[in-house]
Amino acid sequence: MLFNSYEFIFIFLPIVFFLFYMMSRYQIAALSLIIFSSLIFYSFWNLRLLPIIMISIAINYCFVKLLERRSNMILLAIGILINIGLLGYFKYYNFFIDNINYLLSTNIEVPNVVLPLAISFFTFQQSGYLVDTYRGETKGQTFGEYVLFVVFFPQLIAGPIVRHGEIIPQIRDRALQRLQFDNIEKGLTIFFIGLFKKAVIADTLAHWVSNGFNNSSQLNVVEGWISALSYTFQLYFDFSGYCDMAIGIALLFNIKLPINFDSPYKSLNIQQFWQKWHMTLNRFLTHYLYIPLGGSLKGRLRTYVNILLVFLVSGLWHGAGWTFIFWGLLHGLASVIYRVWKHLGLRLFTPIAWGITFLFVICSWVFFRANSMDVAMDVLQAMIRFDQLSLPIIWGEKYILFGLFVLFLVVVGTKNSIAIIDSHHPGWRRTLFVACLAAISFIHLNQVSEFLYFNF
Length: 456
What we know:
mainly alpha; 2 domains; 19 helices; globular
């Protein structure tokens, strides 16, 4: 089930909301309702894959209880390996077999392994929980609290990747059971801002992106830039729209999810970009991989190696393909170069620093979107091909560049949605604004599409 669908907005969410507050006096019943509703939400896509997440939860909870009794490194390693094994089989097995066949000229049959929805997210989230339990940071959670921590439907499918301390204390708080109109107002506001981002902006850009990358060998310089910029903004509004909607839905149930987006295209360097883009993933990789590897405490060379490893993992986590791995490597190298630059005490004029960072992000997104390295190189070569400067005709749109320029001004020159909510008090102007966004979004729901991060 998608946030940007009629059945979710007009059936699922209202029913769950009203039943939750009807049961609010009975905490166990209310929380059980959220768990049951979350499993319905998850299984709506493919009921046959529901046992996978349930088995994963059961196994991880057993290891949580074992680690609570005895903080044992071997137990932790086994639990982590089971999680990695599950993720590896469903997400990377086909990729591995394809590469074996290519390198060794073999003909091993590639099975039809269906990728379970959100497996990357609930695997990372539970692995982090195991590590926190091993460190003695989690205590006394019930099975119901743990299940809700994993399957809470606003953040189940594409994050944010939350930690136990951000969710379980809120679950236990009696304030969860009270109808809080301030949270409802904020929740609906940010939900409809996110819906507008997704349904109106991102899904409109999707057509231009598909045409560009599907015709990569035929692009001229203008078409190449339109393709790259369209995806740059599509991914931004798609993912930030999802994050807004997740935060908004959670607020309806008095749960505050961590912010996952903070105007990343305003960043002045690549390190700052990763502090603002998919912030919970960056936090996870820093906390559970970069620091355990030694972080920056074992010399500069080891620091650079650690950075490269973290970004290679990030690339592979996003997708089983060489384009994702190369994208991760590019960001790792860029981060290392920035560290060296900073160590040398060198600085750039602020507009130049921003321009270099944004240009790098645009170009690296080409690999993130392309189905192959050949397609990525076609688009990048088109972007520097100045022999043809005519406007594109394959889309039949005269104002594509103007629209992209407007979006550029929005992402680099305005406040993000969270800042807007925090800095403006409720009133009739905001209510009218949100109502207009909602009405326009509803019109565009006739062409429902998945969020891009559902694939990761």
